Every structure is written in C-alpha cells, then in structure tokens.
C-alpha cells in the first residue's frame, strides 16, 4: 500500500462490511450519514461524538469516514494554498528584481 504521507490510515473496511452494518443497525438503530447518505449504526464506531451547547454528547451528522475524507481534503487544500502563496511571493520577487534592474539601467533608481 502506498500513501502520500501523514498518519497511517486505520483499516476500517470491516466496519463498513454489509453484514457488520446490518447487525449494528439492529443493535443501535440506523442513522443516515449526511455526507454519503448511508444508513449506518448510530454508535460511536461510525459517528464521532461531539458536544453541543447542552453539554450532552451527540453523534456528529457525518460518519467517521466522511469526516476523515473531508479533513484530508481540507488538508490538501491548505497545502496547495501554501504552495500557491510561495509561488506568488516568488513571482513578485522576480518582478521586483527585474523592475529594479530596469529602473537601474535607466538611471532612475540606484539600489
Ligand atoms: Zn458518510
């Protein structure tokens, strides 16, 4: 298995096995994930608990898989943004060097 870095992914494929999900739904009741729409067992194996204002633990509306996928996507976007910013800084720097050289050639500015 190859991975692009970051934490090693936990193998949760057994959790999403049709039979496991069916038994879980029988035990805990079905809770459709708001992201993938799968009716999954309403328990903390599938949904991360989150605390609302009332202090009681609730299960998040998106399943753990979707939450992880979203997190990975956001992480990727953040990295890409960082690369874009570095590129922009380089471009501006190059431009400034060129502009100052040009101005210098014309005797307008002495650096
Ligand atoms: Zn989901």
General description of the model:
The protein has 111 residues and is mainly alpha-helical. It has one domain (18-105). The chain contains 2 helices and 4 strands; from the N terminus they run αββββα. The protein has helices spanning 18-28, 64-105, and strands at 30-32, 39-41, 49-51, 57-59. The strands form 2 sheets. It has a two-stranded antiparallel ribbon. The longest helix is centred in the last third of the chain and has 42 residues, at 64-105. The protein starts with 17 loop residues before the first helix and ends in a 6-residue tail after the last helix. The mean pLDDT is 83. Bound molecules: zinc ion. Zinc ion binds next to helix 2.
User: In which range does the helix fraction lie?
Assistant: 40-55%
Distance between the termini: 54 Å
Structural class: mainly alpha
- Main beta-sheet strand count, sense and barrel state: 2 strands, antiparallel
Read across the widest sheet, the strand sequence of neighbours is 1-2
Taking all residues together, what is the mean pLDDT?
83
Instruction: Count up the helices.
Output: 2
Estimated radius of gyration: 25 Å
What is the string of SSEs from the N terminus onward? HEEEEH
Shape field: elongated
Percentage of residues in DSSP E strands? 5-15%
